[in-house]
Design goal:
Strand content: 15-25%
Number of strands: 18
Structural class: alpha+beta
Number of helices: 14
Shape: flat
Strand order of the largest sheet: 2-1-6-5-4-3
Distance between the termini: 99 Å
Helix content: 40-55%
Largest sheet: 6 strands, antiparallel
Length: about 575
């Protein structure tokens, strides 16, 4: 057995490996145990609070959505005009026609909302108070508790479910008008399982419902889910609750949500996570020792062989064909080559994950884009049905359905031809809401019209013209032409334009492919960059006449064809 020499290469490697492993284990253990007591409580609390915040935000969004639907139903000049005509008309056929038309529109609102279930117009406090509804149901008892009042003429309520099963629903009543001295209201309810499904998302480690209490601004309990000592109709017993539970609070506008976590579950969760941290430390120590041994075996052998060759004077082996030297370092070159291949594989995987992340951000932006013009169009359809013929209504519905199919379909890849047609349908529908001048100039070969591209990229650009145009004599133009292997899609308006600072900000956003700023332009930039890569550029600037805003999309096509003079220009009518 050879004696151990501290000053030898082998001795130094062993000592360095042992010191490195022991130091890393010691530092990791001290740091972990020093911070676990201080941070673990906040980690668990943040976990419960984040879950409660998510439920609270969904609850607040449901209230906003119900109020928005109610506001749309009570908008003067919309469906209310038909309801008043229905109440004031005594002709049977006319009343039946109006009733069918109103109920179809109520079903449309019900279909669009994920929260709203039953909708009706009613005279509250009367025996047969329901005038028209999207479903057959009885009005709840008049002594239902008021949840809160936040908007003029609007009350949010939480009555017991009319089915008698003990379920609760979120409901809303909004004043709609007065006919013959009698006030009538819009009344709507959420789905019967909305509150139950929403609060059932808050569960303990065993999948059981955690106690959740909904309170008003005065602290009165309005709804309780799970096994909770709180009583509906009484104040929330916060001091008594803290004896057996750890309460968490989410505050909304004039309402709040309490999540009550049993202290026993809280402590068990603490112990389980603490044990998990201890196991991680032990596993880390084991793998550190294993890694130290592997480093020793891998580093000592080639250095020892190299030292022996130097001691024998075989320096020529560095440049010649020494058997021991070439064999030893040849093995290391093979390992380096394997590492290079593995690094290339990891880089490829990281790039793929980056593309997937960009795709997810793209889908998130697309889902957040709110086509708010649909609601205005639907109101316009109601007015057209009352005063115009069926042909005009059918054309409007056709354009709307085509646009919805194009923008909301599952397939996000479309043809340039279809994207241009969808942009025209969108402009056609906007023309039903406001007056403006629209011109287009399409000068493209037929093969480019069938070019694939991401869907929903022209509509957000045109939509910005309506949102930020700021002029009564609005004029919008759309150009599509080929110039020097480049396909240009240009949208321009004559509105108030953008400042130099805003122009520079948008161009920096386009270059960085950032989702900041407007959601619509952020999606357009992400979608085009992800689909075409570096072959596409977006620029923002002032219109050619020195006013308005100009957004240009340039795509490298590889087709050598110049823009022709005298391209075909069309007005808004499109020859329909």
């Amino acid at each position: 057995m050879k004696p151990f020499r501290f000053r030898s290469i082998k001795g130094k490697i062993i000592v360095m490996v042992i010191l490195s492993a022991c130091t890393s284990i010691l530092l990791f253990s001290v740091f972990t145990f020093r911070n676990i007591a201080r941070r673990f409580d906040s980690t668990i609390e943040e976990s419960y609070q984040m879950g409660l915040n998510g439920v609270g935000e969904k609850f607040g969004q449901a209230l906003e959505e119900m109020h928005r639907v109610a506001s749309g139903l009570t908008y003067k000049g919309g469906i209310i005009v038909q309801v008043e005509d229905y109440l004031m008309t005594s002709e049977v056929l006319r009343r039946r026609e109006l009733a069918n038309r109103i109920m179809e529109q109520l079903c449309l609102y019900d279909f669009q909302s994920q929260v709203v279930g039953n909708i009706c117009f009613c005279f509250p406090g009367e025996g047969k108070g329901v005038i028209l509804s999207n479903a057959s149901f009885m009005l709840p008892a008049p002594d239902r508790p008021i949840f809160f009042r936040r908007q003029p003429y609007t009350e949010f309520l939480i009555p017991a479910d009319a089915s008698g099963k003990g379920d609760f629903v979120l409901s809303l009543a909004r004043w709609a008008g007065n006919v013959d001295g009698r006030d009538f209201y819009v009344y709507m309810e959420s789905d019967s399982d909305f509150l139950r499904d929403l609060f059932s998302q808050l569960q303990d480690s065993n999948g059981e419902q955690l106690p959740v209490c909904l309170v008003d601004a005065a602290g009165k309990v309005l709804y309780a889910a799970g096994e909770s000592p709180a009583v509906v109709g009484e104040g929330f017993p916060e001091e008594e609750m803290q004896k057996s539970f750890v309460p968490f609070l989410y505050s909304g506008e004039e309402w709040g949500l309490y999540l009550c976590v049993p202290r026993g579950d809280y402590q068990r969760l603490y112990a389980s996570v603490f044990l998990e941290v201890v196991m991680i430390i032990l596993v880390y120590a084991f793998f550190s020792a294993l890694m130290a041994f592997a480093i020793y075996r891998a580093a000592y052998r080639p250095l020892d062989a190299f030292t022996k060759e130097l001691s024998k004077g075989e320096r020529a082996g560095l440049h010649g064909h020494g058997a021991s030297q070439s064999r030893e370092f040849g093995e290391y070159w093979d390992k380096i080559e394997e590492m290079r291949i593995e690094i290339c594989r990891l880089v490829s995987r990281v790039e793929q994950e980056g593309r997937q992340k960009t795709y997810l951000e793209n889908q998130l932006l697309l889902s957040r884009i709110n086509p708010h013009f649909i609601h205005n169009t639907l109101n316009s359809i109601g007015l057209q049905a009352a005063g115009q013929g069926e042909e005009d209504l059918a054309e409007t519905l056709r354009a709307l359905n085509n646009l919805l199919y194009h923008n909301l379909g599952k397939n996000r890849v479309t043809l340039l031809r279809d994207e241009l047609r969808a942009a025209e349908d969108y402009v056609y529908l906007q023309h039903r809401i406001q007056k403006f001048v629209f011109e287009k100039e399409i000068d493209l070969p037929e093969r480019l019209m069938d070019m694939q591209m991401p869907g929903f990229v022209l509509q957000p650009v045109i939509e910005n013209c309506f949102q930020h145009g700021g002029t009564l004599d609005l004029k919008i133009s759309l150009e599509a032409f080929l110039s020097r292997n480049q396909l240009w899609l240009v949208v321009e308006d004559n509105g108030q334009g953008i400042s130099k600072e805003k122009e520079e900000q948008l161009n920096r956003q386009f270059l960085a492919v950032s989702a900041g700023g407007g959601i619509g332009l952020g999606y357009v930039s992400l979608a085009l960059k992800m689909f075409f890569g570096d072959s596409v550029t977006l620029t923002a600037g002032t219109g050619r006449e020195g006013c308005g805003t100009r957004i240009a999309i340039c795509i490298q096509t590889g087709q050598a064809q110049e823009k022709k003079e005298g391209g075909h220009a069309e007005g808004f009518d499109r020859g329909r």
